[in-house]
Amino acid sequence: MKKVVLGADHGGFELKNRIADYLKQKGYSITNVGVDSSDSVDYPDMAEKACLEFKKGGYEFGVVCCGTGIGISISANKVKGIRCALPQNIYAAKMSKEHNNANFIAFGGRIDYPEKVEDMVDAFVTAAFAEGRHDRRVRKIMALEQ
Ligand code: RB5
To answer: Looking at domain 3-143, which of 3.40.50.300, 3.40.50.2000, 3.40.1400.10, 4.10.910.10 is its CATH number?
Structure first.
């Protein structure tokens, strides 16, 4: 079964749970590292939890949410091996897989997206990495970790 890990802070937990429900319905097995309440937590801690769980292996991708998606995506991108996209719409969600081979996707629970987040998630999971020149560029991204 395809596996996904999800994590969020207090600003993103409701959206994270909505995305989890959507992915469950699509046949994914869900690992939820929390949080599941509006009690204040620090988004770098939640990004770290989700990324470290992902790095245990077996996950297709991860989802992280905070109020804007910004803090938690910046944090996730500090973890070695993680390429976390913060898409604005369906097009960007699709491209984040096709061109950037993102292995995490971030959303903001307090953001009014122009399109349904579920449709953005769907665009991400149904897209495939385009390889070719994009592979060279993604390798260059990863080389920046050294
Ligand atoms: C928490 O209030 C908020 O700062 C956080 O959820 C996120 O939006 C940060 O980027």
So the answer is: 3.40.1400.10
Q: Is 43 in the pocket of ligand 1 (CB under 6 A)?
A: yes
Cβ(56)–Cβ(27) below 8 Å: no
Q: Are strands 3-8 and 61-66 parallel, antiparallel or unpaired?
A: parallel
65 is catalytic: no
> Any catalytic annotation for residue 134?
no
Q: Where are the domains of the chain?
A: 3-143
Can you give the pTM of this predicted structure? 0.98
pLDDT digits (tens, 9 = 90+) for 51-97: 999 999 999 999 999 999 999 999 999 999 999 999 999 999 999 99
- pLDDT per residue as tens digits for the range 119-132: 999 999 999 999 99
